[in-house]
Amino acid sequence: MSIEEFPCLLPSTRGRRSGVRVVHAITQADLGTLAERVGESGAAFLRDSGFRGQVGELGLVPGKDGVGAAVLGVRAGPDPFQFGTLASSLPAGAWKIALPDGIAPDTAVLGFCVGAYRMPAFGRAASPDRDIARLVVPAGGAAGAEVAHAIRLGRDLINAPPNLMGPAELADAARTLLEPLGARLEIVKGRKLARAYPTVAHVGAGSARAPKVVVARWEGSRAGPKAPLLSLVGKGVCFDTGGYDIKPAAGMLRMKKDMGGAAVMLALARLVMVRDLPIRLELRLGCIENSISGTAMRPSDVVVTRSGQTVEIGNTDAEGRLVLCDLLTEAGDADPDLLIDAATLTGAARVALGPDLPALFSNDDRVAQAILEAGEGCGDPLWRLPLWDDYASWLRSPVADMNNVSAKPMAGSLTAALFLKKFIKTGVRWAHIDLYAWNDHYRSGRPEGGEIPVLRAVYAALLPILHARDSAQS
């Protein structure tokens, strides 16, 4: 990824030229230094115009020929979204940023870029090019652009209309994004898919758009055959009607985002490859559509999974766990050092934690703690919920090894995680992330539409987790 791929960024060499204005990021504690930064008249203008230095508040300072400088209220820490209004609020032209202690340059660049994101124009002419604010990338800021690029790609996938982003298109997007980085990628379909992933086939049987499973493998340039193996699994339900247990109309409006887990895992895999981590990587995406037809799965069907365990279909709208279970079984066969899945799995997780706080489940306390601490450290939080085994009995079935839904109308995200746990190989460290992958309304740096949460948290935790396993084994 190069800086040139972001129209809102300029290489650092531009910062040494004339005509580049400065936006001063300032904390509440440093309000008294305004005059040192923008001059006495500039500081007086800001005070008279009501500038108070609140987080995200932008003040423009007059110059000889228009706006001469700007001041942004911030707080020290890892929050990139406080920089999210800059791209749309600063006057057009080149800008560089002066940061206070406690804020890393890559955090500011990331925030500027995600705030500049605009949903692609689908089915209409793109808006004509216009002059925009462009940020000169400071030293140490390029890493933020790499993360922003991964987020942009993931957001684009989620935001695509479902008629333009079906199972085949999602699988092709994975090929386009990963093969140029050296991944060996297979798209499994047809009879081979039905044999290898029977639950994926069963869920996808109702759609005219046949399911696909993406299996990608990659090794870093410094990764030998014994390098740690990371396995990622993503739910890629490109549209979810609910099947015969059909969703109400309002519940279907955002169901193009039901492939958000696949978008997050694909973005994460690409970031791992771009940064050439010294690991081995496997990625599996279940690309599918849950539709209604004469061939669709029915409530009370019984399916034999890849693992040999049988599942009674108690609800066709609990299809995500069926898409994941065969992929998790296959992933476990390689004995990965860490297995992570992500899915827009349950409304219960959103009821418990809201849209911005993904639910984390794990069978390993150290893995969970590493991800939670990494999320706190980079401003990408999660909240751990328990794998409460006493609730496993709620998944009993009189005709199969388990039901795909609980017999009780409680703890829906927990019982979904417990269902998945039944397909995790003994000894494999596993984390399951139940996320929303959507912004319901505009906020600084987070425009309405698809979102890629947990990317930064999980990425930051990967090497500490994998190296800890390496050290323990040696």
Question: Your description of this structure?
Answer:
There is one protein chain. The chain has 474 residues and is of the alpha/beta class. The protein has 2 domains: 3-117, 3-Layer(aba) Sandwich (Leucine Aminopeptidase, subunit E, domain 1), CATH 3.40.220; 160-468, Zn peptidases (Aminopeptidase), CATH 3.40.630.10. Helices cover 33% and strands 20% of the residues. The protein is built from 14 helices and 19 strands. It has helices at 34-48, 86-89, 105-116, 142-159, 167-178, 190-196, 198-204, 249-252, 260-274, 320-333, 347-353, 365-378, 412-421, 455-473, and strands at residues 9-10, 21-26, 58-63, 66-73, 93-98, 133-136, 184-188, 212-219, 229-240, 280-290, 302-304, 310-312, 338-343, 359-362, 383-384, 402-403, 430-434, 438-439, 449-450. The strands form 4 sheets. It has an 8-stranded mixed beta sheet, with helices on both faces. Strands 1-6-5-2-4-3 form a 6-stranded mixed beta sheet, sandwiched between helices. The protein has a 3-stranded mixed beta sheet with strand order 11-12-16, covered by helices on one side. The model has no long low-confidence stretch (mean pLDDT 95). Residues 315-322 form the Cytosol aminopeptidase domain.
